[in-house]
Amino acid sequence: MKNFRRGTAIVAVTAMAGVALAACGSGKSSDDSSSGSGVLVGTTDKVVSIDPAGSYDNGSMTVQTQVYQYLLNFPAGSTELTPDAAESCDFDTPTTYVCTIKPGLKFANGNDLTASDVAFSFKRVVDIADPSGPSSLLGAMKSVEATDDKTVTFTLNAANDQTFPQILVTSAGPIVDEDTYPADKVLDDDAAVKANGFSGPYTISKYSKNQLAEFKVNPDYAGTYGKPKTETVTMKYYAKPENLKLDIKNKDIDVAFRSLTPTDIADLEKADGLNVVTGAGGELRYITFNLKTMPGDTKEQKQAIRQAMASSIDRAELASQVYKDTFTPAYSMVPEGQVGATEAFKDAYGDAPDKAAATKILEDAGVKTPVTIKLQYNPDHYGSSSDQEYNAVKRQLEASGLFKVDLQSTEWVTYSEEYNADAYPVFQLGWFPDFPDADNYLSPFLAPYDTEKKKNGNFTNSHYNDEATEFADPTMTKLLDDERTDGDKASREATLKQIQDRLATEVPYLPLLTGSQVAVGVDGVKGLEDTLDASFKFRFTSLSK
């Protein structure tokens, strides 16, 4: 194979596979099948869909990680792409990426897993284009086809795309059985469980959506993760973090993973018989500006208001007072620790509020003060501390004397619809990365309006780089294209710096905080340290007790 990508080619490897409904917060019951040698994991993350075409969220991804194979995957504790269902993957030409499938693979229902299933899996994500699905991740893919039973070829829109191999590990990458999954619609969860079209390290033996799911080892799995350390893992879903905290504190569950409040984590660190494990960060919290509807009479005034807000925020206070240092200040949309990350906002605006600088920015643009900011946040999707966080943001902005903040909150079901409908001029969002690369914090936010598909290139509906408006930014589009297709590490990092510097000047988004992954396990539980890594995949295969 020709070497058209960064680093070395991915080479062939050989790898080693009635619900008891306890009320949330009540711990294990006497008839709970997860009792005994299995591991019981608690979470507040909800599942949207087991079917990869219908979900793009943490709760669904956790289930999919256990039951589906991917072409490539990340071993525990590593961000090195490794063959999973693939025997090898590499660029054949600058615009064609070819994967060879391992021979003899099967789904748990007995059907063969071939290149045709792989091509089908990626095609249906794009064709279904479910609003809750991951089709946006496949924007780089022009087409995909199985050229024979063992070979699948991806044709890409841009030559030498440096990020596409990592897309295969994301929510868009699970391989489904084309004999049991429909090509034109999302398969509901109960049907997916019944179809048993899984080829990952586990299958689902019992399931009641967002209440309890039991995972059993798939003995035929042959992939990246090797043989799971535990035969049975059960996931229990909680409506409220306080009930999750109570059960892990009482040791009625073995592991608590997402999401405990910072105060709860601090309390559990003092409890006997528990271990609080912190892993690689990457979660990002930020403010989004709807460039069309935010305050300001001109494009220049809108930009000045955004810059003045950037000069008035105290991230360190948010991190320490609200999040008890489980989050740290974010001075870029690319968090610290990612290759190419800078502190562009710190360089531009400092690390503490600067009233004089903010005042001058507004005066130079002719903006009358105080500026009324209608700021919206969500109280249930990004953790229960969001109310404290955004009340602190309101207090900080108003302390400058330059802003008057109208703070409102809305539950997520309505919130996600309304921000996409231009209802919020300034609003909270968060980001959980798909793969460990700086581009995953840039392209989803900054990509231009897609004139062919007639939809926003970024998922936030901010209208930044919308070619149909005055906020188009062809310079940013060019920089994004350059960094994605640059095989030279040094020059790519230089381009990433230019992008972050430009972001700090334009401020379509205002980064606030970045957070670490946190899990709590009872004494005797092993493997949490191995799975809380920068790949952001929570793997049951690592867990044992």
Question: What's the helix and strand layout?
Answer:
Layout lengths: L38 E5 L14 H10 L4 E2 L8 E2 L2 E8 L2 E6 L13 H14 L12 E8 L2 E6 L7 H4 L21 H7 L6 E7 L3 E6 L14 E6 L3 H9 L5 E3 L4 H7 L5 E16 L9 H12 L4 H8 L4 E3 L14 H6 L5 H10 L6 E7 L8 H14 L3 E7 L2 H8 L6 E6 L11 H4 L27 H11 L4 H18 L2 E14 L5 H4 L14
Parallel strand pairs: 1-10, 1-11, 14-15, 14-16
Antiparallel strand pairs: 2-3, 4-5, 5-7, 6-7, 8-9, 9-10, 11-17, 12-16, 12-17, 13-17
Categorize the overall geometry: globular
CATH topology of the largest domain: Dipeptide-binding Protein, domain 3
CATH H-level name of the largest domain... which superfamily? Dipeptide-binding Protein, Domain 3
CATH class of the largest domain: Alpha Beta
Structural class: alpha+beta
Helix proportion? 25-40%
Beta-strand portion reads 15-25%
Query: What's the number of structural domains?
Result: 2
Gyration radius, in Å = 23 Å
Low-confidence stretches: 1-36
Distance between the ends: 44 Å
The CATH level-2 architecture of the largest domain is identified as: Roll
Number of helices: 16
Name the average pLDDT. 90
Give a short account of the largest sheet. 11 strands, mixed
* Number of beta-strand segments: 17
Signal peptide: 1-22
GO molecular function: peptide transmembrane transporter activity
Domain Solute-binding protein family: 80-450
Organism: Aeromicrobium yanjiei
How would you portray this structure in words?
One of its GO terms (biological process) is peptide transport. Residues 80-450 form the Solute-binding protein family domain. Residues 1-22 form the signal peptide. With 545 residues, this protein is an alpha+beta fold. The chain folds into 2 domains: 39-242, D-Maltodextrin-Binding Protein, domain 2 (3-Layer(aba) Sandwich), CATH 3.40.190.10; 281-516, Dipeptide-binding Protein, Domain 3 (Dipeptide-binding Protein, domain 3), CATH 3.10.105. The chain is built from 16 helices and 17 strands. It has helices at residues 58-67, 115-128, 164-167, 189-195, 241-249, 262-268, 299-310, 315-322, 344-349, 355-364, 386-399, 412-419, 443-446, 474-484, 489-506, 528-531; strands at residues 39-43, 72-73, 82-83, 86-93, 96-101, 141-148, 151-156, 202-208, 212-217, 232-237, 255-257, 274-289, 327-329, 371-377, 403-409, 426-431, 509-522. Strands 1, 8, 9, 10, 11, 12, 13, 14, 15, 16 and 17 form an 11-stranded mixed β-sheet that branches. A 4-stranded antiparallel β-sheet has the order 4-5-7-6, with helices on one face. A two-stranded antiparallel ribbon has the order 2-3. Helix 7 runs antiparallel to helix 10 (355-364) and helix 14 runs antiparallel to helix 15 (489-506). The longest helix is centred in the C-terminal third of the chain and has 18 residues, at 489-506. The chain is globular, with a radius of gyration of 23 Å. The two termini are 44 Å apart. The model is unreliable at 1-36 (pLDDT under 50).
